[in-house]
Amino acid sequence: MSGTPQRPARPWRRNFGLLWAGSAASGLGSITLALAFPLMALHQTGSPVIAGWIAAMGMVPRTLLHIPIGVLVDRRDPRAVIIAGHVVRIVCVVGLVGPVLLLDAPVALLGAAAAVHGVCATCHSTAATTAVPYLVPRGALAGAAAKNEARTHATQLAGRPLGGGLFSVASGLPALCDALLSAVSLWLALLLPRIRPARSAPTGSRLLGDLSEGFGHLRRDRFLLLTTMTATVTNALFQMIWLVILTLATQEGLSAFLIGAVLAASGAGGLLGSALAPILVSRNRPATMVVLCLWAWTAVTALLAFADHTDTAWLLVLLPVAWSGVGFVGAHLNVTVLTYHSTHLPPELLGRVTGTLRFFSGGALPVGVLLGGYLLEGVGIRTTTLAVTGVIALLAVVFTAATLSPGSRRRRLRRPRPPVPSTTPPERGRGSPRSAGAGSPAPAAPAPPPPRDLSPSGRE
Prior knowledge:
Distance between the termini: 25 Å
Structural class: mainly alpha
Shape: globular
Number of strands: 0
Order of helices and strands: HHHHHHHHHHHHHHH
Strand content: under 5%
């Protein structure tokens, strides 16, 4: 498009840096306060039942609202959603948590605060994910996904001990920390340009269509459908592995510090995996990456299943190695899926598809914990771990067969339809995702991509 002035490469780096830093501050505050909510309830009441209910109220609403939040993000400017979410989050901490800590208000307010806080955090994460392809050139999306994945693991590594440490000093410090970090994230969001114009709000049947569009796109996209199923099942299975590791560590009398160090190993593995993932992701098709991840997970869980569980010294080596291996492989899978989202989905559907995927994968977490508890009590540690290994191996076989099927090979050879060039240049820096060239603007109304299969080329 010779008549269009070229954009310099630096602004997208600045804007992505602002988005990344704001998401890091938001995630750190969210994890810190989420850990402190049940601790505050326990401190105020002494009842583990109430503490459990407070923790559940922080998880359940945001899981159920993933899809409506995706519709909201697709209809509004992601920057506006981030700003509104942080304003509500700060008001929530001041208006709901503050009275409990300072005025001896009913502890039920903590439950309301946990629910509102969780929904606001989900609004931020979904909007930030949707904003990435609008800010980052296509050729840099894999690196952006790896940076986002590394940020997630780093905030988990830092947030949990930070929340516990601050609470041990004073019960109100985690809430103060979250309010300050939310204010920082809000300030960084205000520095961002408008990412895209808001769309008209749907009514009636159109709203129902928008809510179901994420499901519809998953059904039409074979790769997304199978990866969503894989993420949902493996999320539940690794909650069982988490319980296995916790049970083994407790039975062997490991200290609370060592148990915490073992469980933190997944974050360390995830950080390393995030750093290395772009290398493999850029050289392999998305479906190949998923197959490699599933077989690698099979090997990691098999190591845990067939190991000697009676040797404490061996467990001190095995447990962190196995759990960090889960995080290392998971980082590769997450970068693969995030890159596919950014490069293969229509931008106007990113929020809804992301919300639908998180609805299933997030909903699997409590299911996995519950099933894992019953399995451990009913059949023991080794049989539970063998069952998890067997299910992951079955997923690996199914995904391998689907990837190598003749139909998948034929679809792999199809060339994608080229995008329809825009006749009207978009507003500079807004309106549509960046294109592959650092200086060429994206079309104002990109054509929908062709149907995708299990083995598309061009990962994030």
